[in-house]
């Protein structure tokens, strides 16, 4: 592994092939009776065109909040973006007026959600719902939208599209519904698809089918995808780059091949060790002691320090920044495993 | 077969039957009514109905103080009652549903504004409001509809507000926003269709309330001015002769009871029919 020598390389690279989406220093705070509670803090990442970014983390790590706030989908009475910017197509989505943002939602950035059971309107037919984004964004007639809807259903592998169009969500299985959701998301040919735990609510065989479908669509349409999941196996199969989140911060970013070979952050190591134990069929599964701290009781230093076996006084001062440790890799730890210590000189 | 007739749809059928009969009477009033409701005949005043001693078939339900045929007046009274009842229901339903949708979906300051206004309006007596309106604009069918319509919106606003609040965070609403749906789109295409069944039941029952209120306002002299044949007016005229000519007030009372009963039957039957849990039983 080459040590991090050229930290200056990344801005140059950035200019040469501008990423499709660039998130800079994004913080989101929830309104609470005792003042704002930080749900995510200082999250920065990029999604290059045609690539898949996997965001992994436990429940409450802020991965869904990250996804939702990209399109400002969290109602303002619940939470607000307190700082940062989301650059997409030369515009900062955090500052775009609501009216213009609506033209980005579904048209340029589409989302699919965790619960296919409830993400479809129970009292509207599949066809009606499939046509809606197209009619909203593309201004095409109902007949033309119907024709395209049929094509889309065919694209996502639903047999007898014409018959399915007239059915209601309760007549479809979970996997079918998720396929319909994917068809809806792709209907306006977005450049970026945000998939928020798309397979969590499905059974294992259906999960694999949906992932295969997403994978092949991604290849065929040159789509960029942000895949949010807590399943490292899904990430390993599917993503090009990985961002690991913990307690509202990004703690490690790396290409998928490298992170599984050599995880740098103790938390990532812990996660991978659990998976390794599962594969090795050992007697007792290892776990990371403790739970994710709640956003309102974060320790002053590294949020993982109380659960980390390597923590010492260096970890308790202030949260370590997400710093480059080698080309294309960043880690927020005082002593990333196998890499030179970043705070040594500071 | 018999069991099915008296089964779960019995209430709907009975209620619908009464409502349809009443509506037919209202529409066909000029052809059905034996006399002009305003025609006085002082020689034949205060005749009892045919089933009482001294009554004749000429005036089936007798005559009032001015010799006007009571049956004809009641038949024409259905017109006012049904029209005012449904129109004011529609007005308050539309006002209340829009207010509730906006308050529930938008939340925040708009919600506070609308719902606190609804609370304040709840505390304000309807009759007082009606007196003010009647005093300011005089009694007419249009004003009556306006007064009743405006005084009933809070019920719908609160109902719709509660429903929208519970629907707002459902995934399909979030999904609709995520594919670019604006406020008006989400409210009209996704929220409204969800609440229409419940709204229908409440609106149906509300027609009965409105008819009662209309009768009450007419009784108090705040509805249509006296010669007009409304059930409330007939009731008020009958009150003076409660003992001498009890049929006047009683017949008007029975007419009101009948239509309110029919609408309530229909509304409750509809609620049971539309409620999936009750339907399985």
What global shape of chain B is seen? Answer: elongated
Q: How many helices of chain A in DSSP terms?
A: 11
Q: Reading side by side through the largest sheet of chain A, how are the strands ordered?
A: 6-7-8-3-9-10-12-11
Spell out the helices and strands of chain B N to C: HHHHHHHHHHHHH
Q: Estimate percent helicity of chain A.
A: 25-40%
Unreliable spans of chain B: none
Layout of SSEs?
The complex is a heterodimer of chains A (about 350) and B (about 280).
Chain A: H1 9-16, E1 21-30, E2 37-47, E3 52-56, H2 63-70, E4 79-88, E5 91-92, H3 98-104, E6 109-112, H4 126-137, H5 142-155, H6 161-165, H7 174-186, E7 192-196, H8 204-221, E8 224-229, H9 232-238, E9 241-246, E10 249-255, H10 256-261, H11 266-280, E11 323-326, E12 329-331
Parallel strand pairs in A: 3-8, 3-9, 6-7, 7-8
Antiparallel strand pairs in A: 1-2, 1-4, 4-5, 9-10, 10-12, 11-12
Helix pairs in contact in A: 4-5, 4-7, 5-7, 7-8
Chain B: H1 2-5, H2 10-27, H3 29-32, H4 70-106, H5 108-123, H6 126-137, H7 141-151, H8 153-168, H9 171-178, H10 183-219, H11 231-239, H12 246-274, H13 276-280
Helix pairs in contact in B: 2-4, 2-12, 4-5, 4-7, 4-8, 4-10, 5-8, 6-7, 8-10, 9-10, 10-11, 10-12, 11-12
Which characteristics define this entry?
heterodimer; A: 346 residues; alpha/beta; 8-stranded mixed beta sheet; 4-stranded antiparallel beta sheet; 12 strands; 21% strand; globular; disordered N terminus; B: 281 residues; mainly alpha; 13 helices; 73% helix; 0% strand; elongated
Structure notes:
The complex is a heterodimer of chains A (346) and B (281). Chain A is α/β, with parallel strands linked by helices. Chain A is built from eleven helices and twelve strands. In chain A, the strands form two sheets. Chain A has an eight-stranded mixed β-sheet with strand order 6-7-8-3-9-10-12-11, with helices on both faces. Chain A is globular and about 65 Å long. Residues 1-16 of chain A have low confidence and may be disordered. Chain B is built from 13 helices and no strands. Helices cover 73% and strands 0% of the residues of chain B. The two termini of chain B are 18 Å apart. In chain B, helix 2 crosses helix 12. With 281 residues, chain B is mainly α. Chains A and B meet through helix 3, helix 4 and helix 7 of A and helix 9 and helix 10 of B.
